[in-house]
Structures are given as C-alpha cells and as structure tokens.
C-alpha cells in the first residue's frame, strides 16, 4: 500500500498512534509476506487482550496494508467518533439482527475492493485460562465463502503484558515485548463453491482455529490444548 495514498485522516491516525506504539512495545514481526498481496485478504487473529487491536493494527500497517477492523454499529452512531471511524475505513457490524446480512455485504465489499479485513473469530477475548484460543464463530468462514479471498492467520503473544484480561492489570512501561506472526493462508480449497450451511461453516471455522492455535504454539512453544469451549455462548464480532 503506497503511504501517499492514505489520505488525511488515515495519515493523521498513523502520525498520532504509531510513535506511541513504537515506544511502548518491543516488536518481533514475522510472516508479513503473507499479507503483501495486491488483493483483498481476510486476517484472522487470536484475541488475548484488549490491546490486541493496537498491536495487530501496527503489524498489518507495517506489512504494507491498512487494517480494517469490525466494530459494533452502535459505536458508529456516536457523534464525531462514528464519523472518524468511517473516515479511517473501519467497518460497522450489526449483530444478532435482521441487519446482519447488510453487515456481510459491507465486509464483502471491503474485501473485494482490496482491503485487509481483520476478524477475531472468537468474538471476544479468550476465556481459556492460559490464553489459548477458544472455538471460533463462523463469520470469517462465511466471508471466505462469499469472496474467495485468502484467510491469513495472525497469531499474537505479548499484548496481555500491556493489559491482562485475567488480572485487569494495565502496564504503560516502555518496550513491552510483543510478537506477531502471520502464516500461510488456511487451506480451505475443499469447501470452494460450497453452500454456507451450518455444517460447512463449522468445519471451515474449526480448520481456521486449529491453524491459528498451532501458529500461536510456534510463538509460545509447548503443546497447545484442544480448542477451548466456553460453558456459555459468547457474542462478538466473529459471529
């Protein structure tokens, strides 16, 4: 992505946010070449902290793409805030309503126009005690079927040192180590052209989440556990 094509508002975000993150974190980036395509891509990331969007956004930007995150549509209706989010090309998503189909249309349009759409398939920060991924929701799979775009897993470890959802501890010390690694696109060819039935979407989502879990294990080390299943349904952007 040519930096000169960012426009005023996106460039303003970069000028304000990137220097802070550069001081705040000590970064280890890997696998950026998997995002360096000229076409649309679906980025699926693990969700271990409320600091994830900052770290993931920094990584995706450094890989040469502009990150487009999903956000609750209600936030986009807040005066000033909503306009700013739209100006920097973030995507409003309606959840659990008849407008969900319109949200999918927006996502499809973003991907088909060459965007890098970032989805947290878990829909919320993981509830797994050691911060391994949970089972995912089917939004990324549904978008992949609708667009045929590659689904690139991006695993993060370190944002929990900025904010740990288990302890609610927040750190502002400089040079917090964070590691982000992208892997090759998830192999979803066997479902190419399939109807988006529940069975198909569930199978695709399982494939995505296992690949994401295993990529995280490459960063953390050790043997990852089976995908964790919450005891109660969680709502979120991955749906």
List the helices and strands and how they pair.
Layout: H1 7-24, E1 25-30, E2 41-45, H2 52-62, E3 67-72, H3 73-76, H4 81-87, E4 91-93, H5 100-112, E5 116-119, H6 139-147, E6 151-157, H7 159-162, E7 163-164, E8 169-170, E9 176-182, H8 198-220
Overall mean confidence score, pLDDT? 92
Order of strands across the main sheet: 1-9-6-2-5-3-4
What's the total count of β strands?
Answer: 9
As residue ranges, the low-confidence spans are 233-237
Q: What's the helical proportion of residues?
A: 25-40%
Radius of gyration: 17 Å
Q: Class of the domain at 27-63 and 115-220, according to the CATH hierarchy?
A: Alpha Beta
Named CATH architecture of the domain at 27-63 and 115-220: 3-Layer(aba) Sandwich
The main pleated sheet reads as: 7 strands, mixed
Tell me the CATH topology of the domain at 27-63 and 115-220.
Answer: Glycerol-3-phosphate (1)-acyltransferase
- The CATH superfamily of the domain at 27-63 and 115-220 is identified as Glycerol-3-phosphate (1)-acyltransferase
Derived from helix and strand composition plus strand pairing, the structural class reads: alpha/beta
Name the quaternary structure.
single chain
In terms of DSSP E residues, the strand content is 15-25%
Q: Looking at the structure, what is the overall shape?
A: globular
């Amino acid at each position: 992505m040519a930096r000169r094509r960012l426009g005023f508002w996106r460039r303003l975000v970069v000028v304000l946010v990137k220097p802070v993150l550069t001081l705040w974190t000590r970064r280890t980036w890997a696998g950026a070449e998997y995002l360096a395509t000229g076409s649309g891509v679906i980025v699926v990331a693990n969700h271990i902290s409320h600091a994830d969007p900052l770290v993931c956004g920094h990584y995706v930007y450094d890989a040469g793409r502009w990150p487009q995150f999903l956000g609750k549509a209600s936030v986009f209706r807040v005066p000033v805030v909503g306009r700013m989010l739209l100006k920097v090309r973030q995507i409003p998503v309606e959840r659990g309503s008849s407008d969900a189909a319109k949200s999918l249309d927006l996502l499809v349009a973003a991907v088909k126009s060459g965007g890098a759409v970032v989805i947290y398939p878990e829909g919320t920060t993981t509830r797994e005690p050691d911060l391994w991924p949970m089972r995912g929701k089917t939004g990324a799979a549904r978008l992949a079927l609708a667009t045929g775009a590659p689904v690139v897993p991006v695993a993060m470890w370190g944002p929990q040192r900025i904010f740990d959802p288990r302890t609610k501890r927040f750190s502002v010390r400089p040079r917090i180590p964070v590691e982000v690694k992208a892997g090759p696109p998830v192999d979803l060819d066997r479902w190419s052209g399939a109807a988006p039935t529940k069975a198909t979407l569930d199978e695709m989502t399982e494939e995505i989440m296992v690949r994401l879990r295993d990529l995280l294990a490459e960063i953390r080390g050790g043997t990852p556990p089976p995908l964790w299943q919450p005891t109660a349904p969680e709502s979120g952007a991955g749906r």
